[in-house]
Write a structure and sequence with these properties.
By secondary structure, the chain is α/β, with parallel strands linked by helices. Helix content is 44%, strand content 13%. The protein is globular.
Amino acid sequence: MRLFFATSTVLAVAASSLSGCAAFDGGGSDGIQVATAFYPLQYVTERVAGDHAEVTNLTAPGQEPHDLELTVKDTGLVAEADLVVYEKGLQPSVDDAVEQNATGSTVDVTDVVDLRAAPDSDPGGEESSLDYDPHFWLDPVLLAQVGDAVADRLADVDPDHADDYAANAAALRDDLEALDRDFTAGLRDCARDTIVVSHDAFEYLSKYGLHVAAIAGLSPDAEPTPADIGRLQDLIDQEGITTVFGEALVSPELSQTLARDMGITDAVLDPVEGLTPDTADEDYLSLMHRNLDALRKADGCR
């Protein structure tokens, strides 16, 4: 009997611990609980949900979304959520958690927006691990489509607040369409139309007339070959490029080295994949406006 009691107590404590891991931080069990996979999806969902839901992001500030591995607690968040918003294929651990553990509703943004095809190969000659370019949120109009889809799904989960979700999504769309117009106008009259970036995360900006040359591929971990660097050096000379752009969440070593070797400037172009300690007070809109200012300066826009 003493052995049975001790074993039962251990199992009860373990179950309690796992239950605690699954609970959302700072929230009760009465409200709508939403889990988002990475920052742009968090931003959209918070804007649409307003005060009617608690939104928890699975990718911590400062963490590279491509590298995310879920903890037991994170998996519990997915299991407990009334809604999970994610992008299938970008973060395999999130895909697995959704498939195996999610009990609520889901929004997979690959079902919502038309994604650009991935390049046939990354710099370095490696085949891309994705058949699409996942960085759709750099096109504000595509991000607005995700906002509309989140509003529809939240209305299914919580019909009492459906009108609020629709109104919030409409206000978000207004902001994102205004941002789209700012980019169109701001990049219309420029001395140059080519940018050199640290990894191939910015092709969705090509809608504004930009040509993007990347040091690394769709994954920030892809390594360029000496031939890749040589082609970029030739491009910089031929196009009169003034700036090599690094990123907030990726080591600046490659971009800074290329800029230094060419005697030009290095700067930051944020793919807005996540916030950092330096951008904790910013949001998607302010970071995108920063990007626009950086692009206009680098390409000599009037």
